[in-house]
Design a protein that fits this description.
Elements: E1 2-4, E2 21-24, H1 28-37, E3 41-44, H2 47-54, E4 72-76, H3 84-93, E5 102-106, H4 111-120, E6 124-127, H5 132-143
Parallel strand pairs: 2-3, 2-4, 4-5, 5-6
Antiparallel strand pairs: 1-6
Helix pairs in contact: 2-3
C-alpha cells in the first residue's frame, strides 16, 4: 500500500530518459529486491553512504562518475546511523537535490511516521515488502504514464 504525497510538485522525466534510482536500505535482501525490480539503480546500505554518492557530504564530491544523475531516491525508514527521515531532510535541504523525489519504505505501518515523512516532502510512503505494483506505480510517475 502506498501513500502518495499531497504536494503538487511534479517530477516527470522525458520518455527517452532511463530513470536512475538510488536505493538505500540496511537490509541486503531488500536492496537486491529493489535492484532486481528497477533496472537502472545504485544501492547503498545507509544514509551517510547515500549522501556521499549524492555529493551532499562535507566534501561535496558527487561520486556518480559520469553516470546518469539520480532521478529518484527510495529509502528504508529504519536504518542504523541515519533514518530514512533524516536522509529525506538532508536531500530536501540541498539546493541541488531538493527536487529529486524521495520515497520512504517501512515494514511498520505507523500513521504519525508516514504523515511526518509526507509533510517533510516524501513523494510516497510504501509499506514493505515492496511489490511489483509499487515499482510499476513509481515507474509510471517517473515516466508520466497512466497506472
Amino acid at each position: 500500500m502506498a501513500a502518495p504525497s499531497s504536494s503538487s510538485s511534479t517530477w516527470v522525466m522525458e520518455t527517452s530518459d532511463v530513470p536512475h534510482v538510488l536505493a538505500v536500505d540496511d537490509n541486503l535482501i531488500d536492496r537486491k529486491l529493489v535492484e532486481k525490480l528497477l533496472r537502472n539503480s545504485s544501492c547503498k546500505e545507509n544514509g551517510p553512504r547515500a549522501l556521499e554518492l549524492l555529493g551532499l557530504t562535507s566534501g561535496g564530491q558527487n561520486t556518480m562518475n559520469g553516470r546518469s544523475k539520480v532521478n529518484l531516491v527510495i529509502t528504508d525508514y529504519c536504518m542504523p546511523g541515519m533514518t530514512g527521515y533524516e536522509l529525506l531532510k538532508k536531500i530536501k535541504e540541498s539546493s541541488v537535490m531538493k527536487e529529486v523525489p524521495v520515497v520512504i519504505m517501512s515494514s511498520e505501518n505507523i500513521p504519525t511516521r508516514i504523515n511526518k515523512c509526507l509533510e517533510e516532502g516524501a513523494q510516497m510512503f510504501i509499506l514493505k515488502p515492496l511489490k511489483q505494483s509499487d515499482v510499476k506505480k513509481l515507474t509510471c510517475q517517473l515516466m508520466n504514464c497512466e497506472v
